[in-house]
Amino acid sequence: MTSDILIPALSDTDKAAALRDVAGLPLIRRVLLGARNAGFDAATVLTHGEDDELRSALAGTQARAIELKTWADSQAGAPTLVLTPDFLPSASLLEQARELSGSEDAHHLGHHAVYASPSRIESLAPDLSGSASAEDFVATLGGTGSEHGSEDGMVIASGGDRQKAEAALLAGLVKSTEGFMSRHINRQISLAVTKRLMHTNITPNHMTWVSMVLGLVGAAFFLLPSREAHVLGAALFLLHSILDGCDGELARLKFMESRSGGVFDFWSDNVVHMAVFACIGIGLGLHQGAIWPLLFAATAVIGTIASAWMVFNHTMRKPKGDGPLYTSVSTGECKSMIVRIADILSRRDFIYLVLILAIFGKLHWFLIATGIGAPIYALVLTGIVLRDIRNAS
Fold first, then answer.
1. Are 44 and 58 in contact (CB under 8 A)?
2. Which pTM value belongs to this model?
3. What domains are defined for the chain?
């Protein structure tokens, strides 16, 4: 059954709360986009008159702004979740509300949220039309309806509330699939950067470009003969990896995920990796007067191209929602040991090894390992892809 979401922004206090900036978005925009992602089919914002700021905040959310009297006179439709405009619901509350579809009662989901059937809303429409504020509206609609769980979300009534909400939103960006170093070092730094960028106009694609340029500049330092240059190159390579997390963080935080952005991020990472492998091989070959570094660099680059192309075609080419957001080398639901190992190897913790070996002047160890390992990894991926295709047929 379809479900709607409704936010009454009736008083000046309601509108101020709805427009309060939370992690770079007006609160009402954040709530409506989150509800859309959670499966709510339509959204309505009730007002007592025209408000340009409110309409601007709703742009692109597919929500309609309508005057309360007009809405009350023509009300009919799907079961509706009503939220006060100062409330940021959690994903679990939205899911809980969706599970109430079909109920003919009103269900309190806390002091700031109530879920009601079309018949209840229609019967109360005359009383609701006289509401002076969102608090009055929710109290009238909830009436003596049953309690259904406790409030799950945050009321954003002050600057302190906003800071707590932003901290919770940032903490929710950490992925369970990340490697150890990425989770405990990279992600902590990238979240600190994202925290400072989220209130700016910098987009995820901007950060992808910045990250890629840093990685390519770092790769160029491996062409030089000195250990100091190699350490600097490795440090820039690591910085590329850290800042590369910011694009995805900004995209998820500000509902800017897109398929094109995900593809750009995926290929930019692989371009940087190939540039690093190639420059290490060329640099060592030139300064040692040897051919073997070039051969290992070639096999590393070829293996990387093969692996990236295979993952892209197998897990990302077919659209799955708004963005590809690669999470596994396999499309199968059941992850075998070999798939889990392949997923671990695809993470970027290896970049710390580049820095450590550069400090000790042992970059050739990394080149040899990559030159051997990249083609083997590509062969393992081939086996995983063939297995997935066989299981799907």
1. no
2. 0.86
3. 4-155 (3.90.550.10), 172-392 (1.20.120.1760)
